[in-house]
Structure formats: C-alpha cells, structure tokens
Amino acid sequence: MTVAVLKSFPLRFYANVLSFKDLSLNTAIDWTNIGRLHCQFPWWEDATVDFMRSGGFNVSNLIEQVNQRTLIIWGQDDRIIDSKLAVRLHCELPNATLRQIPDCGHLPHVEKPVDVVKLIAEFITEESPRQAEFIYPS
C-alpha cells in the first residue's frame, strides 16, 4: 500500500464527515473534492513520504517556549482531536485562553467563521487572559 490511499475519495469523504458537526451530503462531496486538490500535484506522493520519514512536524517540545498571549479556539464537537487535548494545551500555555464553540466540529474557522472572528476580536482587545469557557452563538 502506498500513500496514494490518502487521496482516495472514500477516505477524504469520511474525514469530512468526522470534521464537521452537521454536513449535508452535497456539501460533504464538494468539500471532499476541494480537500483532495493538493493531492493531484505530481510531486504530492513523494513529498508526503518524505514528510512522514522525517517524523512530521511535532511542536509538543516547543510549547514551553511560547510566552505570548494565546487564544485556543476549539469546536466542542470535534471528532478528530479529543477536547481533552485542548484542556491540556490550555494548561501548558501559561498565557492561554481556551474558548470552545458549541455545535462545531474540527474546523471552527470554516464551520462558524462569524463566531471565530468575534472571539479573535474580543481576544485582541482584552487586557488579561480569560479562563476556559464555552461560547454560545448569539
């Protein structure tokens, strides 16, 4: 088996279904096709294999170097990455604010862009970090 399976329609479709809270069939198909575009480049398979062999991009050991105020935005219904990791990240970043968006999956900036913009606008005007909290759309 090669990395070509990563660009297969069924796998990408399943990833889209997992990524979003509520997704119509037509939208899932459209986003699957869009999400596969980069896989069509002739160099994609070689680049993917090289990336995997290199160990990928792991930032875990760099987290302690982040001193800036940080906003963590997480979809409450993310089925790709467990929300426990959001809490862990919040605990590991000393100046972090964690905001979870209800009824939102793995890609809040795509699924709930208005809520994300509001959170960012609030964050940049705040004097000090907030505690973790849920955001309920208005």
Automatic annotation (TrEMBL):
Coiled coil: none annotated. This is AB hydrolase-1 domain-containing protein. It comes from the Eukaryota. SUPFAM superfamilies: alpha/beta-Hydrolases. InterPro entries: AB_hydrolase_1 (IPR000073), AB_hydrolase_fold (IPR029058). Residues 29-113 form the AB hydrolase-1 domain. Pfam families: Abhydrolase_1. Gene3D superfamilies: alpha/beta hydrolase.
